[in-house]
Amino acid sequence: MIIKRRVREKLTPGSVGKAKTTCPSLTRQGFTLIELLIVIGIIAILTSMLLPALKTARDKTKEIACVGNLRQVGTATSMYLSDHNGYFFLMWDGIRTWYYHTGSSLSFNELYLKANYKLPGSTLDCPGGTNGWCGPDKGTSGHMDYAFNHGLGYTTSTGFIRDTILRGHESKTVIFCDGENYHTDFFYWNNPANNEGVQWCHRARANFLFYDGHAEGRKATEITDANFKSW
């Protein structure tokens, strides 16, 4: 009887399977100064490698957007020429430029392109430009991000310039480009003494819209006065 009682006491409910366990205390160790400096150094190296690539990607995005703007301007120009028997609009006729009017008649932009040149992100706002109404210049003295070829936007003794004179030169005649003013004078477009030049605002390049409708970026060494002639 005494033996059975002791066995029952040992096998009381809930006592089976229980065992005392002990865990040694764990101590957490932080980074040492050397390890921390190594991590910081790795982050600095990765940052220096990624930042130029990110800037290049941003600049490329701006270039693509600018080319898109010029193509829209080209489409509007084609519509204008079709409606006016091939005659170009004037860059300035005393009461209006090609992009706004001060008299009663509307400009080429207001009739065909219909872009708000004072609105950031509009067709006439180059993402990489600084001279337009949306940039730091705020349109001072009529400055625009895109310039119309002066060689096509003036009158002669026989009247307005007609696109028939461009036959055979369609792929090399500039109509619009990244500019430092609302027009670019082909006689002295690269003269730093005036504001009537090309704006090289895309990684030392500028975007150009040609009469045949294509737009592309070129360096200063890849463009000449002949590209602005009114043949």
Largest sheet: 5 strands, mixed
The side-by-side strand order for the widest beta sheet comes to 5-1-4-6-7
Mean pLDDT: 79
CA distance, first residue to last residue: 128 Å
In terms of DSSP E residues, the strand content is: 5-15%
Q: How many alpha or pi helices?
A: 3
Q: Low-confidence parts lasting 5 or more residues at pLDDT below 50? A: 186-190
- Percent helix: 25-40%
Structurally, the number of domains stands at: 1
What gross morphology would you assign? elongated
Number of strands: 7
Q: Any idea what the radius of gyration is? A: 35 Å
What is the chain-wise order of helices and strands? Answer: HHHEEEEEEE
From the helix content, strand content and strand pairing, which structural class follows?
alpha+beta
Structural features, described:
The chain has 231 residues and is of the alpha+beta class. The protein has one domain (46-228). Helix content is 29%, strand content 11%. It has helices spanning 2-10, 33-83, 108-113, and strands at 146-149, 155-156, 159-160, 174-178, 183-184, 205-210, 215-219. The strands form two sheets. The chain has a five-stranded mixed β-sheet with strand order 5-1-4-6-7, with helices on one face. The protein has a two-stranded antiparallel ribbon with strand order 2-3. Strand 2 and strand 3 form a beta hairpin. It is elongated. The termini are far apart. Residues 186-190 have low confidence and may be disordered.
